[in-house]
Amino acid sequence: MKVFCTGATGFVGAHTALALLEEGHELRLLVRNEPAARSWFESGGHRIERFVTADIRDPDAVQRVMDGCDAVFHAAAAVSLDPRKARQTYDTNVGATQSVLAAASALGIESLLYVSSVAALFHPGAPHIDESTPLSEVSEAYSRSKRDSEEHVRKLQQQSMPVQITYPVAVVGPDDPKLSAANRGLATFIGRMLPRTTTGFQCVDVRDLARAHRWLLEHPPTGDFENARYIIGGHFYPWDELRQRLESLLGRRLFSPRVAPRLMRAMGATVDRIKRLVPFETQISAESMAIYTQWPLADSSRFLAKSGLGFRPGGETFADTIRWMVDAGHIPPNKAGLLACAPTDPLKAERQGAP
After folding, report:
1. Which residue of 59, 114, 140, 280 shows the fewest CB atoms closer than 10 Å?
2. Strand pairing partners for 238?
3. Topology at the third CATH level for domain 2-171+204-233+298-311
4. How far is it, in rounded angstroms, from Cα 19 to Cα 341?
C-alpha cells in the first residue's frame, strides 16, 4: 500500500510513518522542510520513497502530489498557544484538513485516516468520554481548529466518505522529534513538580497509537462510516497513582504537592487575562487547567473490540520515555534516578500489574 502522509515530522506522524514502513508499506510524505525530514528518518535507517512539498491548504496542489497513492494519513497541524498566532493556527489547521480530504475525494482514495484529539470531546466533570460524546465548546485557537476540523470530517462521513477518525489522549513515548506537549509535561513532573489534584492523567504510548493508525489504514471502513471514530486512550492514572508509579521507576521521591483544583483553575484564568495584555506562549490556561483538574476517563473499548489490539504496560512506556529524555538532554541524569544508570525490565513492570 502506498500511503500519503502529512505531519510525519511531528511526534504522532513520525511514529505512524515508522509503523507503516515496518510493515512494508511505501510512503509519500508531504513536508515543509525536506532536508530535516530526510535526516530524521535516515538517522533511524529508514528510506522514504518520496518527499513532496506543496501548500497544504491548496487542494489542487495537494491532489497533484497525492496522485498515485492508495491511502491517506492526515496528522499535520500547527500547534501554538501564542495568542498572536491564533488566527494563523486556526486557519492553517482547518484549511489543511479541508484541502487534504478534498484532494483524496477527487482521487477516489478509499482508505483515509484523520487524527483529531480527544480534547475535542472534553466536557469538564463528565462521568466519561466515548465516541458518542458531543463536541466540546473550547476557546483556544488550536482546540477550536481541531473541533471545527472534526465537524467538517463528520459531514464527510455523513456523505459516505470512507474516512476514519482517531482521538488520541495525551501522547507520550521516546524518540520525539520536537518534544511534544505531553512529553514536556512528563519532563516537568520528573524534573520540577507533579501537582496532585482531582481526576488524573490519561496517556497513550506513541508506539501503540502508531500501531493503531497502521491497523486502521489497513482495514478501511466499508460502511457505517459515521461510527468509524475511535478513541485511543491508553491508560488512566489518578494523580496519586501516577506519583507512586513514577517514584517506583525512579527510585526516588518527587516533589508532588497537593493543590486545590479551584486554585489551579483560577491560576489558568489569571494567565489568560494577562495574555490579553502581554501576549506570550505558555501551557497554562483556563482550558488546560480545567483538563488537568476535571479530566474524565476516555473509553477506548470500541477500538479495542474492533481491532483486537491492546496497550503496553505503563511502566514500559514511562521507563523508555524517561531513558530517552535523559539521552536527549531533556532531563538531567540525576533526576532520572535508577533509570539513568540501568534499564528497567518492562516484563517486571507488567508482572507488578502496571497498566
Report:
1. 280
2. 200
3. Rossmann fold (3.40.50)
4. 29
